[in-house]
Amino acid sequence: MNKLKSKNFFNRTVLAMGLFAFISSSAVAQVDTKATTETTNLLNNLKSVKTLFGHQDDPVYGLNPDKTRWVDDVDRSDIKSIIGEYPALIGYDLGHLELGKSANLDNVPFDKMRLYITDQYERGGVSTLSWHPNNPLDVSKTTWDKVEATIPTILNDNKALRQYKKTFLKPLALFFKSLKAQNGEAVPVIFRPYHEHTGSWFWWGADYCSEEEYKAFWKMTVDYFKKKRVHNLLYAYSTDKFRSEEHYLERYPGDDYVDILGFDAYHRNAPSSNDAFVQSAKEMLQTIKKLGLEKDKPYALSETGLEQVTEANWWTNIVLPVLEDSGASYIMVWRNGRPNHFYAPYPGHSSESDFKKMAESGEVLFEKGAKAASLYK
Ligand code: BMA
């Protein structure tokens, strides 16, 4: 090589090395390497955003001050009625889509759900989808009926597996692909399948399949959506309460198959359990925080709540202390389903003013905070 050539070679090599370092430092480890830009941006932004406040089925129904139900009122939400903003994150459930029904197991029509999800995206907020499917080997059985060995049977029987993909996964793939913004962009959503699997109340629960079978079933599901070119999903892994890091990771399908680390933990038996709940929820959050930082993944309290919010100061006495120093990307309370089964306040509820106090603290974000965070850019 003459002098000039060797200089060029040197320059090019340095440039290539720099480019490689740049690409590898900015590349996101993400389950779906073909995810849309907005989906990847959401994943990245979730890592640094303040905690988003979430509520299941928020714009679909809720409670009136006299505790009767309202259903499908235009532009209404119990959270919005109280603080003037929608939650930053809203959850829905896909259960019964696999049965070909037009509404989910809680009577939320899928067509409406699709509109609510796109509305939430246009506002700059986030949607998350759980799934309570009936039993695939006997669809007359609900998601909660005790059924042994469903997962091993499907995994070991090609015909059953084909059937599962066709009747259970395909309708979901079509639904995900139908989520389009006004400008045609695919709307990113957080998909949280086979949740609370450390418990045994669903057919995918710990008593009904081995660790390896659960992981294989999860991977099969993710691979199916990738193959069907569904590119607007972030995959959230969400256990129930767990004892330790080892317990949390027992059925973890691997870093290539999970985008978001989560867990569900409900507060029961208040007030006697108040301190114990705060302490255990904090500990679990610290565990997934450590894992999230190690694995460079966002982490969240994917489902929580105190049924009927029987503590007037639950929001500032329990929720804020739980979240303190957690860095959690989001926290979601469950649905305002019926007079004796609700998890967010409604106008006139005893915890209304405390909820406002939590919102004013700025420690959790709602619609405006989510918008300001530009989560998709
Ligand atoms: C449960 C309850 C049920 C509901 C199910 C799925 O926690 O709220 O009433 O059917 O979630 O959303």
Q: How would you sum up this structure, described in words?
A:
By secondary structure, the chain is an alpha/beta fold. The protein has a single domain, classed as Alpha-Beta Barrel (TIM Barrel). Helix content is 40%, strand content 14%. It has twelve helices and eleven strands. Helix 7 links the parallel strand 6 and strand 7. Helix 9 runs parallel beside helix 10 and helix 10 packs parallel to helix 11. The N and C termini lie far apart (46 Å). The N terminus is likely disordered. The chain binds beta-D-mannopyranose.
Bound molecules: beta-D-mannopyranose
Looking across the biggest beta sheet, what order are the strands in?
1-4-5-6-7-8-9-10
The total number of structural domains is: 1
Characterize the biggest β-sheet.
8 strands, parallel, barrel
Radius of gyration: 22 Å
Short overview:
The protein contains 12 helices and 11 strands. It is α/β, with parallel strands linked by helices and 377 residues long.
Task: List the defining traits of the structure above.
40% helix; binds beta-D-mannopyranose; 11 strands; 377 residues; globular; two-stranded antiparallel sheet; TIM Barrel; 8-stranded parallel barrel; single chain; alpha/beta
What's the layout of helices and strands?
Elements: H1 3-26, H2 37-46, E1 51-56, E2 61-63, E3 69-71, H3 78-83, E4 89-93, H4 110-122, E5 126-130, H5 150-155, H6 158-177, E6 189-192, H7 211-227, E7 233-239, H8 245-249, E8 260-266, H9 274-295, E9 299-305, H10 314-323, E10 330-333, H11 352-361, E11 364-365, H12 367-372
Parallel strand pairs: 1-4, 1-10, 1-11, 4-5, 5-6, 6-7, 7-8, 8-9, 9-10
Antiparallel strand pairs: 2-3
Helix pairs in contact: 9-10, 10-11
The protein binds beta-D-mannopyranose.
